[in-house]
Amino acid sequence: MAETILVYASAEHLNTMLPMSVTIGKHHPSISVVLLSTAAAASSAAAAAAPAVNYRLLPTPAFPENSDPFELFFEIPRLNNPILRDAIEEISKESNIKAIIIDVFCNPAFEICTSFGIPTYFCNTPGAFALCKLLHWPTIHDTIPGGAADSLKDFDYSIEIPGCPLLRLLDLPKVFLFPLSNSYKHLVCASMNMRKSAGIIVNTYHALEFRAMEALANGLCTPGAPTPPVYSLGPFINTEKDSSSGGGGGGVDAECFRWLDLQPIKSVVFLCFGRRGVFSAEQLKEMAVGLENSGCRFLWAARSPPGEADMEALLPEGFVERTKDRGVVLKGNAPQMQVLSHESVGGFVTHCGQCSLLEAVWFGVPMIGWPLYAEQRMNRVFMVEEMKVALPLEEAEDGFVTAGELEKRVRELMESKTGTEVRRRVTELKHSAAAAVAKGGSTVVAMGKFMEAVIGS
Fold it and tell me: Can you give the pTM of this predicted structure?
């Protein structure tokens, strides 16, 4: 029977779990990798076409209307447990399943997986600093002032977590501010199950988050309890995509790259905010003013707010015409990784998602952090204070960023000694990322240790 690794990914994290699965399959072709998920059609098509991976689409179960979106990330796998059990039983008839890797959101499936006697691993997609926080959270839960309250959003104090810079409570994902919510309980349960797992895979490489990796290796995040092996197998990005200057495809993308080809090296600031990066009309106008006043070249991927169809009508009158010689506004998505790989791009205003961070570092692009949701505010702390690969943006209490603040930070990144130092640091980490995935590098060594554990189980 073929030896197989099962990977169970939530739809939310398929874009990270897929390249991880491809990497395992390519580096160890003797092992069959089967990827299970409930992802929507477009994501499923990409997974089905991926090399070295067998993709199986699981049905999305019915769930109550008006469900909390974050809670659904856990509830969909929970409701799908009977289907997952059937899938594992079916695959077991034709394969020797050596290990199961589950997304953190798939934690409700942990007991199903372990009930088969199969070593079960977690994959923590946000990285090692975030893993320190999650593993350590049960330890600090009872020590938080106001921890018995319905909400901690009115409490603002610092939290010490091994391997991390000092964090403010309000820098954590919002779910951690509501300790009586089901989502919070799901995360605490995931943390406890991680401690009992066969190991944890993180989407990073050792040099990028070395302090966090050392804290994890030394068991500092789980005092009084064992820490399972932690494997830094990242970066989970498809670095084999065409990274040439014209690698963006046709249509609008082709026009974008033709424009980039005409710009001086490292002169363009790229603004892109992920799948859910939508701003209010007021914020879009403010961003436009800041970009125009900065005098810098820019490529801005912008979405219209819900209910607003015409992006150009939302921008200041005459903005597109006045900036046409030094700026481009892309309506909707942008081919982010291909843009970051272009030699004319010298800065990146990002929402601080882990994949965006890793892509920027891989191509040596310094950043300005503008977090929007989930773990991104916490990531910005890591990026600015620990990794030193980004500058922060000062925000109002409601998250609004003024034109003057954006202008100041863009100029600082592109024109000042501070920006030069951030660029130097990112360049160092770019070289360390390449070294990590080369023969004898930290990621390759960690992959060898992981596969040795799997095959020997």
Answer: 0.94
Q: Are 241 and 337 in contact (CB under 8 A)?
A: yes
How far is it, in rounded angstroms, from Cα 63 to Cα 223? 38
Q: Which amino acids are annotated catalytic?
A: 13, 103
Rounded Cα–Cα distance for residues 283 and 286 (Å): 5
Q: Where are the alpha helices (DSSP H) in 170-304?
A: 182-196, 210-217, 251-261, 281-294
Query: For residue 440, is pLDDT > 80?
Result: yes
Tokens representing residue 73 in the block: 């990330």
Place of tokens 């050392």: 214
Is the previous residue joined to 145 through a cis bond, with omega within 30 degrees of 0? no
**pLDDT tens digit string along 20-35?**
999 999 889 999 999 9
232 touches 206 (CB < 8 A): yes
310/280 Cα distance (integer angstroms):
13
Phi, psi at 145, each rounded to 5°? -60, 130
Let me know the angle formed at the C-alpha of 348 by 50 and 274, rounded to the nearest 5 degrees.
Answer: 45
- DSSP SS3 for 9: strand
Angle CA(410)–CA(412)–CA(415) in degrees, nearest 5? 100
Q: What is the DSSP string of 179-210?
A: TTSHHHHHHHHHHHHHHHSSEEEESS-TTTTH
